[in-house]
Design brief:
73% of the residues lie in helices and 0% in strands. Helix 2 runs antiparallel to helix 3. The chain is mainly alpha-helical.
């Protein structure tokens, strides 16, 4: 039974584009104003978790680009706009 609960809490591997779609859906639900307080808080928490995962994916991509460019001697600094 422990495996079933563990599997239900783990999120499957999510691509960046799919994550963005999910985040956009959550934002639309929250902006719609039709959720209860509890559902709003749950959606907000899920959105923040998703945002952190997507930000980590972007950072990993930027690091990979820096590494690849560094092999040729060229470096590029990225500035993240908030």
């Amino acid at each position: 039974m422990a495996k079933a609960s563990k599997a239900s809490t783990e999120q499957p591997e999510l691509g960046f584009e799919q994550g963005m779609e999910q985040l956009e859906e959550l934002v639309a639900e929250l902006e719609g104003g039709n959720l209860t307080l509890e559902k709003s808080l749950a959606a907000y928490e899920q959105g923040m978790t998703l945002h952190a995962r997507l930000a980590a994916m972007l950072e990993a991509g930027e690091q990979r680009i820096r590494m690849l460019q560094g092999k040729d001697g060229a470096t590029v600094d990225f500035e993240v706009e908030a």
